[in-house]
């Protein structure tokens, strides 16, 4: 199972990190060992600045290569929410040296994934999602603000990687990312339904 992640897919998030708005999807990947099992996230010993990034996640239900955008919606049936945890201090150091981000993005437990839901129950062109930290709303996103839609992403990614059943695509995070600390509680909502509940240790 591959975890394919899209960076800088919301213009306001790109701006808050001082990044240029991309003209094509920015891709990075996480290994399957990044998937968090359980409701506890342990801050890794190699970072003092781990950030949450709430994202809509798509689960691939039909494999393919060179998928056309018009056919992309046939390749996924379920969506959910996930948190892309990022060791921001490590990422900044790696970026300053022109090195890949994997150590900052792909460490064990860095891909939180909740339950998945049938996509036909939602309006994917205007999907609301939000994250609360200690009961305070810190991220509030809507899929209509994506620079690249889910179908755009699938068409683009499948030019390079064959997609297989079970692969996950993290579609990017809106503005409002921030640091987690011990004893924080994160709660993620898809529309008005809580779908993730996480404790930071």
C-alpha Rg, in Å?
16 Å
- What percentage of amino acids are in beta strands? 35-45%
Q: What is the spatial order of strands in the main beta sheet?
A: 2-1-11-5-6-8
Which sequence of SSEs, written as H and E, runs from N to C? EHEEEEEEHHEEEHEEEE
Structural class: mainly beta
The oligomerization state is single chain
User: In DSSP terms, counting alpha (H) and pi (I) runs of 4 or more, how many helices?
Assistant: 4
What is the approximate shape?
A: globular
Q: Overall mean pLDDT score?
A: 95
Q: Which residues sit in consecutive blocks of at least 5 with pLDDT less than 50? A: none
Helix content: 10-25%
What is the CA-CA span between the terminal residues?
27 Å
The total of beta strands comes to 14
Q: How does the major sheet shape up?
A: 6 strands, mixed
Write the layout of secondary structure elements.
Layout lengths: L2 E5 L3 H6 L9 E5 L9 E2 L8 E3 L1 E7 L15 E9 L1 E2 H9 L5 H4 L5 E8 L9 E6 L2 E7 L7 H8 L10 E3 L7 E2 L5 E6 L2 E8 L1
Parallel strand pairs: 1-11, 3-14
Antiparallel strand pairs: 1-2, 4-7, 4-12, 5-6, 5-11, 6-8, 9-10, 9-13, 13-14
InterPro entries: Fumarylacetoacetase-like_C, Fumarylacetoacetase_C_sf
Protein name: Fumarylacetoacetate hydrolase family protein
Pfam families: FAA_hydrolase
Describe the structure.
The protein has helices at about 10-15, 90-95, 100-105, 150-155; strands at about 5, 25-30, 40, 50, 55-60, 75-85, 85, 110-120, 130-135, 135-140, 170, 180, 185-190, 195-200. The protein has about 200 residues and is mainly beta. Strand 13 (about 185-190) and strand 14 form a beta hairpin. The longest helix is centred in the middle third of the chain and has 9 residues, at about 90-95. It is globular and about 45 Å long. The two termini are about 25 Å apart. The model has no long low-confidence stretch (mean pLDDT about 95).
